[in-house]
Amino acid sequence: MNTTLKKIYNVFFSLEVAVILSLIFMAGQIYATLGFNTLQEAWGGVYETKWFEAIMWLLGINLIGVMFKYKTYKKTPIFILHLSIIVILIGAAITRYFGYEGTLHLRNGETKNYIMVERSKANPADVYKKDLGFSIKLDKFVLKHYPGSMQPSSYESFIEVIDKNKSFKYHIYMNHILVYKGYRFYQASYDMDGKGSILSVNHDPGMWVAYFGYILMAIGFLWSMIYKKSRFMMTVRKLKQSGLFAFLLFILFSGVNVRAFDLGEFAKKSKAVSDEWAKVLVQQRGRIEPMDTLDLDIVHKLTLKSKLYGLNYNQIVAGMVAYPEEFQKLPLIYVGHPAIRKLLGIEGKYAPYNAFFMPNGDFKFTKEIDKAFKIPDKDRTVLDREWIKLNERVYIAFEVYTAKIFKIFPTPNSKMMNYRWFSIADLQNAVKSGMMNPIDAQFYFNLFKNLADGIKTYNVELEKKTREKIYELQKTYSGEILPSESRIKWEIFYNRAQIFPMLIGIYSTLGLIAMFLGFFEIIRQKRFKKIETLIVGLGWLALILHTANMLLRWYISGHAPWSDAYESIIFIAWGSAFASVFFFRKSMLALGAGLFVAGMFMMVAHLNNINPQITNLVPVLKSYWLLIHVAVITSSYGFLAVGGMLGFLNLILFAMNKKYNLENQIKQLNNVIYLALYIGLALLSVGTFLGGVWANESWGRYWSWDPKETWSLISMIVYAITIHGKMIPKLRGEFIFSLLSFLAFFYILFTYFGVNFYIAQGLHSYGQGVADGYGWVNILFAGMGAWFVVVLVSIFMAISSKISKPVVIKEENKNNDYHPQGENNGM
């Protein structure tokens, strides 16, 4: 091989070029998710283009060359880990070139032997007929709703497969598919009249190849963590030798003194009677829950607090029911924007309900709110968003004052109406429509009046007897859907304990104390073991409290507590705290970083735009995959968060290095960061591909370039480059590694918050949290851009150095079988 070819070979089959190709691959995905309005446009602009396809081919070829050039096959777990990527790419190629997807639309009683196949994701209307070789008949489609609501709880197709002389019946529903003759049939959607089913049909010969790659990746990560010659285990040994085998890991409510009717007397005397009011069962969003839960949600929406004016949330709602005229004068509705406060003529942050209405009863701000709703979400200003929120708060208050929100009365024919319950505001219409007779309606009206009278007169006995009568009616007509008495009691306890908000202060305080102690020990070159033991013990207690409250929420809701925005952030915080006290508790800096990160995530979970309600699951989430996929991937965020925080702390140590000579501490902390990132990357990779398996079992494709899965892949690439940076001369310095570890976490933040609340598209976007404004995204873009620039500049410097360096052909060092620098790093 001549010198020029040798240079080309050395340059192309190098880690530097692998990084360059990965950065281009990342850039394409970022452009696809941020540069187009819809996923359909992104397919046409990026995912189906030849250049994007070419990048994936070049990545695969480069990886094969790098694996053989550095003889990774001599280290079995490292070889398996990198081989898994090749296998996954091969599976994706088979799917891309030989697989196809289509839909089968059937009405009740209809039979078809063909599907409509898409030629292009960019143009779903461009379809052709594909003969199945057998027929599918829809015997019956069944659509079920949660009690008393129009929210689907499941949709199911009862079909018959007819193939020549044989046939069989099958039941298809979400997460339960039909596999027959190479085709996979999924319940995708349905006709709005409930009499037709839309099945997604997938023919994918590359699926099992990709699955095999996923399994290899999981084996490779696990094996590399116990393989004695791997970088991971070498780092563990270094930390053991240094004695640092550790991990990286309230909001105060203030009452305002306001003088109204006799608020002080009401605050003192109404607590016992409002406790009885809180036990009444109410139907809300398809759930049967204690009034306590609804009251907490109402007051949080109106005031952003759970207490105000010396009243707890039950007393506030009970007062609004019993004394509507007095409470309509009380400033209860939070107004977030100064411009609106000025229009209302209020000095503080709260306005009374009456302030929003003219003397004739007309709403004052109809024009402003209509204008805000007409503006596309991405173009709305902070003021526009506040008008929309204010509209919701005023409407909720209206529903309370008219008692429309309190759906507590079932009917004798409740089961026939999907267990729909009524409020007293619904009674008149129910009588007119024949759903309720006038005698029952009057009886229910009197019962609700007794509840209000019990609050007015502070008559606990009347309130209790009335509540028990209502409960007997609910049990008689809707007993099948009532939660157990134990669950009701625990839900009330969960609401009142407010453990999750309390953990904000506990985690943050412990984290700051631990980090301060860590810095103090470094400067003094002395450890304070008794204080360390106390902090670790308190950390364990906080984690146990956190875990117990998550399990309690699981019991109350009936599903794993990581199904929506609020729950998933709570779980990420749990992952950070767990990693800190379980894995790396001997390092105060690592422990403090993890606990502080947990506190910050808990704080984010309780921001105004995150909804903490316990809600029902959508049909696709009713799967054991929810438990596995989400638990694994959100756990990875905890490890990566602590790695990012430790990277930031290590940068501070660099700034102090000249004065205190902290080289050894910096290296040790970098080793801890490496372990955190490696575990985090392993969990992120496995969790992402488990999500692919779930997606394939749910709607027929294991990879659809949905924004969340795309950004998960981007994050995997970012952390793979960060970890492999230790093998590239221009990226292997302690300072660069700490900097990249810190900046890399901005990609995780965007993967979670950016996709959920900024891009807000795709199958993974939570609908329960909407960002107030997008200024925070600029911070994430700045962090991600800084990481990208640091890596890009370093890589070009490394490649330039290789090109300019003369080629010396010599016998390769047999012992240096993986890294060109001769460092026995493993992965």
TrEMBL record:
Signal peptide range in chain numbering: none
Membrane topology note: Multi-pass membrane protein
UniProtKB keywords: Cytochrome c-type biogenesis, Membrane, Transmembrane, Transmembrane helix
Domain spans labelled ResB-like: 75-195
Domain Cytochrome c assembly protein: 562-759
Transmembrane segments: 12-31, 51-68, 80-99, 208-227, 239-261, 499-522, 534-556, 568-584, 589-607, 627-652, 672-695, 710-728, 735-759, 779-799
Subcellular location: Membrane
InterPro entries for the chain: Cyt_c_assembly, Cyt_c_biogenesis_CcsA/CcmC, ResB-like_domain
Main location: membrane
Protein name: Cytochrome C biosynthesis protein
